[in-house]
Amino acid sequence: MQITLVLLNFLALVVVVTIFKSNKKRKILILAVIALVVFSHQFVLVQKTTARLTATAYVTANYYHKGLKFEQLEWLGPYGAYGVRFKDENGDIMGVQVISKKVPIVVIYDSLDQGP
After folding, report:
1. Total domains, the chain
2. Does residue 106 sit in the same domain as residue 56?
């Protein structure tokens, strides 16, 4: 989780540097895109799509060899996270939790990772 936050901070820094180095039209375009992304995450459909894409990218990066396929996504209110379930070729279920309702981009639980 700390690595993700570091990457997000780095990405924000890159965006800020890019904005200040660009000409006026480019600055306006970059700020408009950022505003659109932030505003669009107010809609549940965008939040669910972001959670699914985040979980799929995580599973693909960590468990590509298992051939996991997306099965279900649901909001887990008590945990404040989206639960995303995948199934492998043998029918075994695997799940991850993606936090932040507004911008779900951090995987906090992985049922296959039994580390500390």
Report:
1. 2
2. yes
Burial (0-12, 13-18, 19+ Cβ within 10 Å), 97: buried
Please, what is the end-to-end C-alpha distance for the chain in angstroms? Answer: 14
Q: pTM higher than 0.85 for the full model?
A: no
Rounded CA-CA distance 53/56 in Å is 5
3-state helix, strand, coil in the chain (%, to 5): 55, 25, 20
Judge if 87 and 59 occupy the same domain: yes
| Cβ proximity of 73 and 51 under 8 Å | yes
Q: Which domain holds residue 82?
A: 44-110
Summarize pLDDT for 41-67 with one digit per residue, the tens: 677 787 888 888 888 988 888 888 888
